[in-house]
């Protein structure tokens, strides 16, 4: 893999493992607010979308008031249990430190809100290495729309051809591809590379693959 000047990373499932955490939180919230038991694979398939899109995918349209109430409880529950499930993905702390030390610009492009994101980045020891963080509050459109990736490039003052978007979900690969950015799919994902609607440029098996000459 050729080196890039800028690296854009999804967060959940890419930088840190939260699949089980997210699943358990949706089991809690969907039981409480919709009296529904959604199959595990359906919940996991929505990871990478904004929280509102995930809830509406499972229980239908929500008013702002309804969503705000559910979201507050959902995230409160998540922050109470996250320490039992959160872990960095393969090679992440070492790779992020190496890329940063070599002068690469690093950004996060995520559907996770900043409060829990900042907590999880600190818990996994990588918060300080990212120059730019793009959350759903920064853009009108969200992944798989290209706007979040383009916003990150704008803030980094970087051109698409100098960047690589690293992610674990079809929403990440489509977002990066539609922004004109090369993409890397992480092989530790619960998704499969050959099931991506747009083929990724690269497939990596450890984040340290990004540091290989």
Q: What can you see in these coordinates?
A:
- With 213 residues, the chain is α/β, with parallel strands linked by helices.
- It folds into two domains: 6-17 and 88-211, HAD superfamily/HAD-like (Rossmann fold, 3-Layer(aba) Sandwich); 19-84, Orthogonal Bundle (DNA polymerase, domain 1), CATH 1.10.150.
- The chain has helices at 19-34, 40-45, 51-59, 64-81, 92-101, 114-123, 147-156, 170-178, and strands spanning 6-9, 16-17, 87-88, 105-109, 132-134, 163-167, 182-186, 202-204.
- The strands form two sheets. The chain has a six-stranded parallel beta sheet, sandwiched between helices. A two-stranded antiparallel ribbon has the order 2-3.
- Strand 6, helix 8 (170-178) and strand 7 form a beta-alpha-beta unit.
- The longest helix is centred in the middle third of the chain and has 18 residues, at 64-81.
- It is globular.
- It starts with 5 loop residues before the first strand and ends in a 9-residue tail after the last strand.
């Amino acid at each position: 893999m050729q080196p890039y000047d800028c690296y854009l990373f999804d967060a959940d499932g890419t930088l840190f493992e939260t699949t089980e955490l997210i699943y358990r939180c949706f089991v809690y919230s969907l039981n409480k607010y919709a009296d529904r038991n959604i199959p595990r694979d359906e919940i996991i398939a929505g990871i990478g979308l904004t929280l509102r899109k995930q809830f509406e995918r499972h229980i239908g349209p929500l008013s702002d008031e309804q969503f705000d109430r559910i979201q507050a409880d959902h995230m409160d529950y998540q922050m109470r249990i996250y320490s039992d499930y959160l872990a960095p993905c393969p090679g992440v702390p070492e790779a992020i430190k190496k890329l940063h030390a070599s002068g690469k610009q690093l950004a996060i492009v995520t559907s996770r809100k900043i409060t829990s994101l900042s907590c999880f980045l600190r818990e996994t020891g990588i918060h300080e290495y990212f120059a730019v963080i793009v959350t759903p509050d920064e853009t009108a459109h969200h992944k798989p729309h290209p706007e979040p990736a383009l916003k990150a490039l704008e803030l980094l003052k970087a051109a698409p051809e100098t960047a690589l978007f690293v992610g674990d979900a079809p929403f990440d690969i489509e977002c990066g591809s539609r922004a004109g950015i090369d993409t890397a799919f992480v092989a530790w994902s619960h998704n499969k590379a050959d099931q991506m609607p747009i083929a990724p440029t690269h497939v990596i098996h450890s984040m340290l693959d990004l540091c290989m000459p």
